Amino acid sequence: xxxxxxxxxxxxxxxxxxxxxxxxxxxxxxxxxxxxxxxxxxxxxxxxxxxxxxxxxxxxxxxxxxxxxxxxxxxxxxxxxxxxxxxxxxxxxxxxxxxxxxxxxxxxxxxxxxxxxxxxxxxxxxxxxxxxxxxxxxxxxxxxxxxxxxxxxxxxxxxxxxxxxxxxxxxxxxxxxxxxxxxxxxxxxxxxxxxxxxxxxxxxxxx
Length: 207
Known about the structure:
By secondary structure, the chain is an all-alpha fold. The chain contains 12 helices and no strands. Helices cover 76% and strands 0% of the residues.
C-alpha cells in the first residue's frame, strides 16, 4: 500500500522518468503519487502530462479535470488543458485556457508561444503578432516566436515584417552541432538545463 509519506519519492522518480522519455514508467510513478495523496493536484496533472506526451490526449482529460477540481488556480494545469484542447482542434477553448495562464504569468514565453501559434491557426494574425512580440520581449532570440511571427506577418500581408522575421529565424535557428557541444555542461547545471526544456517549472513559469 502506498502511503502519503511516499508521495515525494514517487513524484521525483516520475519526473526523472519523464525527462528520460520513459513515458509509461512516468505514468506508473505518477499514478502512485495520486494513490499516496489523492488531494495533491500535481499528481493528477503529472499523469496527464505523461499521457499527453504519449499522444493519449483523451485518456489525459479526466486527470486534468481532477487536478482542476482540486486546485483550479494552478496555471500549469490550464496550460496542459490548452494542449489537449489544441489537439482536439478546440482552438477557442485553448485560447481561453492560455489566457488564464497569461493572466497569472504574463511573461511566460512557453504559454505566449502557444497562444501566438493558436491565434495564427485561427487566422487572428494581428493578435498572434501581439502574443509573439510578448515572447520576444522576454527572449529576443526565441526561434519558435520568430518563425510564427514570420507566418503571422505573411497572413497580414506584411512582406517586410515577414522577411525580417525569416532572417531572424534563420539566424537563431538551433545548430545541431552546438546543441551537442552544450549538452554536457547543461547536464551538470540543473538550472541551465531546466531553462533549456520546452516545458519547465520555476517561479515565473506555469506554477
